[in-house]
């Protein structure tokens, strides 16, 4: 691990819970023995390619690709020894349902490092791969332990959203100005959003979209539905007193710092009620316009 920046394993685990992916496949080779391909990747917009480079430097592993046609870059790691070191540090810190895949990925990688598939036990790896690509059970990621601050920061850098919006109103000024902090996840990670809510002690978790059919959640709940849930904080007081101070303690590593800075500035203007003056409203509109232009 390269200590040239202030990333931590907890931060990285949070970011991987949001943007990381694990891939395993069996590939036939010219010899009789098959090749087991393993790949750990993190995807980001080309605008945030520098963030992937920071992670690469922290891990001292992998390659950061150029942007594809969709404008997405990837940090990709194949080396078995590096994968073993990285996953050994990440797995205990992962909090989402993705942890189940990470555990199996690490197990498959270790079996391959021991060359089990070359010693007549290919079926053992095939069984693990089948489980790896099997249906996820939301109960597998259930954990009631408090989340670490650095995990929160990493996860929000991957999945969080800081927003400023204008809403039409019938009287007075044409628009009402709102600030908002949100995280949206698939319903199978609903319990994780509740833990985030418990960490900040402000905001609420709501159903963002739901559709049938109902699926058993596991021993911790009776049923849940496919779709997504959202954790959101919209109170100006809560954002100014809880959200902004927390994220100001440590800087963001990527471009999300720009949307956070915009929301923070607008939230303080709203707190001081300067938006009720023409000058204050014009200032907010100019800041939002400049942000969108850049």
Automatic annotation (TrEMBL):
GO terms for cellular component: mitochondrion. Residues 12-91, 153-266 form the Homing endonuclease LAGLIDADG domain. InterPro entries: Homing_endonucl, LAGLIDADG_dom, LAGLIDADG_Endonuclease. Keywords: Endonuclease, Hydrolase, Mitochondrion, Nuclease. GO terms for molecular function: endonuclease activity. The keyword Ribosomal protein does not apply. It comes from the Eukaryota. This is Putative LAGLIDADG homing endonuclease.
């Amino acid at each position: 691990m390269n200590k040239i920046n202030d990333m931590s394993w907890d931060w990285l685990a949070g970011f991987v819970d949001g943007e990381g992916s694990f891939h395993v496949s069996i590939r036939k080779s010219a010899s009789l023995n098959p090749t087991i391909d393993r790949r750990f990747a993190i995807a980001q917009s080309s605008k945030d390619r520098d963030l992937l480079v920071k992670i690469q430097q922290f891990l001292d592993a992998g390659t950061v690709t150029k942007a594809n046609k969709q404008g997405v870059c990837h940090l990709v790691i194949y080396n078995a020894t590096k994968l073993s070191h990285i996953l050994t540090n990440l797995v205990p810190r992962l909090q989402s349902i993705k942890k189940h895949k990470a555990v199996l990925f690490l197990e498959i990688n270790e079996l391959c490092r021991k060359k089990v598939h070359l010693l007549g036990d290919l079926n053992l790896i095939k069984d693990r791969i089948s489980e790896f690509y099997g249906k996820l059970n939301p109960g597998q990621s259930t954990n009631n332990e408090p989340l670490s601050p650095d995990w929160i920061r990493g996860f929000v850098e991957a999945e969080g959203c800081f927003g400023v919006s204008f809403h039409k109103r019938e009287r007075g000024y044409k628009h009402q100005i709102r600030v908002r902090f949100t995280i949206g996840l698939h319903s199978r990670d609903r319990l994780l959003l509740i833990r985030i809510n418990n960490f900040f002690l402000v905001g609420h978790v709501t159903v963002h979209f739901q559709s049938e059919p109902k699926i058993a959640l596991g021993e911790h709940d009776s049923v849940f539905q496919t779709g997504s849930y959202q954790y959101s904080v919209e109170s100006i007081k809560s954002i100014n007193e809880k959200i902004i101070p927390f994220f100001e303690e440590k800087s963001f590593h990527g471009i999300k710092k720009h949307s956070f800075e915009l929301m923070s500035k607008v939230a303080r203007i709203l707190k001081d009620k300067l938006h009720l003056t023409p000058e204050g409203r014009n200032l907010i509109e100019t800041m939002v316009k400049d942000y969108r232009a850049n």
